[in-house]
Every structure is written in structure tokens, then in C-alpha cells.
Amino acid sequence: MPMNRAHRKLCSSEKWALTTRDHILPWTLADVPLGDDVLEIGPGYGANLRVLIEQVPRVTAVEIDEGTAALLEGKWGDRATILHADGAAMPLPDESFSSVVCFVMLHHVPTAAQQDRIFAEAHRVLRPGGVFAGCDSQPSFRFRVLHFRDTMNTVDPAGLPDRLAKAGFTDVSVDRHPESGSVRFRATRP
Predict the structure, then answer these.
(1) Could you report the per-residue pLDDT of 128-156, keeping only the tens digit for each?
(2) Which of 20, 23, 59, 189 is least surrounded by CB atoms within 10 angstroms?
């Protein structure tokens, strides 16, 4: 996993899980129809996953790091399908999910081209009318310090609508959190 020790400690903490539950997911998913079968790309240590499994009947999580996928399987595998796979090349059938989500993980994807492949894969596995929704952090001094010797490739909010449209999405919206500056997006597969 492309995270330094301090970053791994934060992302696996109960404090982060509570921040996710109480702030990140409510803001990111406000008015987003998740449907009955949700795919999360890049669940990391599972802070988002543990909230999602309480909200929807079926959740699948695709995690690129083998060790982390094994941890998720051990903790949540009885309530969610956990796949060790790359979000840019998922071994999943076309049009199989009612929604696809990703939370605070895109900046860990090393290149914009790989991020674009994740967007294309999200589009491919979504059912027509399904929503792709997510959020990610934006650079700040504290964010840069936390990512010392980490992968940190933040998305440009101004260019994100065009990138999602190129992946095939419509009804794209991107906005920023008024306090944190984080970016959230929503897009629909026609």
C-alpha cells in the first residue's frame, strides 16, 4: 500500500472511522441513490465499508493491496464480497452494480491515466442509470506532511468533469467542501 507508517496508522484508526461515518460519507453521498448493489473501489482499511454494509443489501469492495484485502476479508467478508484486484482492471461483469463509490483514495493512484482507467471501469460495471460518486482530498500543508514519501496525485476539480465525461458519464457534478476544500463528484451512466 503506498502509504507511510503515520498515514497507515491514521487510516486504520477508530478516529478516522468515526470521521468517515459522521462527516465524509454523509457529505459525499447526500442525495445519492445507492440502490441495492454497491461497489466500493479502494476501501483501504474499511472505514467506509463498515458504514456501507449497514446502508445497502449488497456491497462488493475491490482492494488493490493483497494484505489489506485479506484484512478486509477477515473482518467484513461475511457481510461483503471482498476482491483483491486493481480498480483499473476489475474482474467484474459489465452493468452489474447499481452504484460505484470511492472515498479519499484517488490521490493514491500514481497517474492520471490510471485514475482515468478507474473511471472507465466504474462506468463499465455500472447499470444504466447508475451513479458513480466519490470524494478526495485536495492539497494543503497538513495533507502534504501526512503524505511524505507517499503517493500523492490529487485530482484537479476543474478538469474532473471532462475526465468523467470522457469515461462516458453524464450529469456530472463536482463541488468543494466549504470548510475542508475536499472535492466530491457524482456522475451517471446513461
Answers:
(1) 999 999 999 887 666 665 666 677 778 99
(2) 23
